[in-house]
Amino acid sequence: MTTNAVDHEQTTAHSDALRPASLLDDVQSLWHELGDLLHDRVLLAALETRQAGESLVVMMIAAVLIAVLLNGAWLGLVVAAVLLLIESGMVASAAILLAVAFHLLIILILSGVIRRKSHYLQFPATLRSLSSTRQ
Q1: Are 82 and 96 in contact (CB under 8 A)?
Q2: Residue 116: C-alpha distances to residues 14, 106, 110, 120, 121 (Å)
Q3: What is the pLDDT of residues 97-112, one digit of tens each?
Q4: How far apart, in whole angstroms, are the C-alpha atoms of residue 125 and residue 16?
Q5: Most buried of 18, 59, 90, 92, CB within 10 angstroms?
């Protein structure tokens, strides 16, 4: 064998020895980058979950305050209507009973709406779909 052929075989063997190490380094580097990326995504999701939770609490507090204020405004309107009826000559007890009857009528109407809409809480289309695939 010539010296040139031996040098070529040694160079080829040397480059083959370097290639797997380089490939292993690349795989390890990629694995670490993937871990870092996963960590960043989980951290971002945790921060956004915290922000969403805080926002939900603020929204619920605001909703409760709105409900209290609306209740007060509604009571003010009812009192004003009762006083207007009394000023126009209606007996006070009759005006109050008329307001109560009006509220009971609204309650009956809203109860019917709730009863009709409660059907959709049972996911009827999904249940029909699942029962048709089982048959």
Answers
A1: yes
A2: 80, 16, 10, 8, 10
A3: 999 999 999 999 999 9
A4: 63
A5: 90
Report how far residue 78's alpha carbon sits from residue 56's, in angstroms, rounded to the nearest whole number: 32
Instruction: Give percent above pLDDT 90 in the chain.
Output: 60
Reduced to 3 states (helix: H, G, I; strand: E, B; else coil), residue 2 is: coil
C-alpha–C-alpha distance, residues 20 and 24, integer Å? 6
Specify the amino acid at residue 28. Q
How far apart (Å, rounded) are the C-alpha atoms in residues 42 and 29?
20
pLDDT (tens digit per residue) in 82-95: 999 999 999 999 99
Distance separating the N- and C-terminal Cα atoms of the chain = 79
Cα angle 59, 60, 61 (rounded to 5 degrees) comes to 90
The per-residue pLDDT for 45 is 92
Q: φ, ψ for residue 90 (rounded to 5)?
A: -80, 145
Instruction: State the alpha helices, DSSP H only, in the chain.
Output: 3-87, 92-118, 124-134
Q: What are the tokens at 95? A: 């005006």
CA 38 to chain centre: 23
